[in-house]
């Protein structure tokens, strides 16, 4: 039985999480699967980071932003999968009250950081294709440093109101989270308070970041596609499109999984669907980004050939 912090406080010392299955055999298979996935994510993204840091010809804004994207993918996956692996291995499904909200805070922070960084990367491609003569001025090292710093500061500040508001709720109806990590929706479902104001505030904060980034990304690509279509030669159009094809794929993958996870009508929500789409978001994006950005990238092919990895 879960203990309480005091008789007058309905918040538990710890939560229990449902996870995926109670079958010991299935848990073992899930542990091996998620361990291999996690190692693949960390190793592939660290390879991108190491390649960009070690090769001076990759010290350009596009690759610097990509390096930060790989770091973000490692971080936000590491907020979820290690704890999930621990639950599967030890069969202990509990997480402390503080640990739960720390996990939620960093998950929101790194998700927000990816929103912001994808928008910055879209702007970088816009400048490169639509204003190539002014690229070195508009995307100077100082400007890139400010964009990256603003990205990290904004993403670390954004989850603070969410985390504080939700942690102040009373979780008296149940302490059992029907999920595999501490996400906003499952926690709100456990509260015996009226959560409408918290949901509204969370929706507004998330909407401001999400819609602003989506609008900037969409506007950038409207101008990019328009400029590409105005290029006379087919070779020139193909070359221009190839410089942003990887980013477009990444954007579609990211926004597609986020839309399925958080933008469905409430009538369509179910614990099983939430877990499935959350798992896609936690695993698909960080494991897909490295091949998306490297498989057809001539710069990375040269690097991998030099270090005998390709």
Labels describing this entry:
310 residues; mainly alpha; Rhopdopsin 7-helix transmembrane proteins; 3-stranded mixed beta sheet; 12 helices; globular
Molecular structure report:
- The protein is mainly α and 310 residues long.
- It has one domain (21-306): Rhodopsin 7-helix transmembrane proteins (Rhopdopsin 7-helix transmembrane proteins), CATH 1.20.1070.10.
- The protein is built from 12 helices and 5 strands.
- It has helices at 24-54, 61-78, 81-90, 97-130, 135-138, 141-157, 159-167, 184-190, 196-229, 234-262, 271-294, 298-306; strands at residues 4-6, 9-12, 14-17, 94-96, 176-177.
- It has a 3-stranded mixed sheet with strand order 4-3-5. A two-stranded antiparallel ribbon has the order 1-2.
- Strand 1 and strand 2 (9-12) form a beta hairpin.
- The radius of gyration is 21 Å and the shape is globular.
- Mean pLDDT is 82; it is low at 1-9.
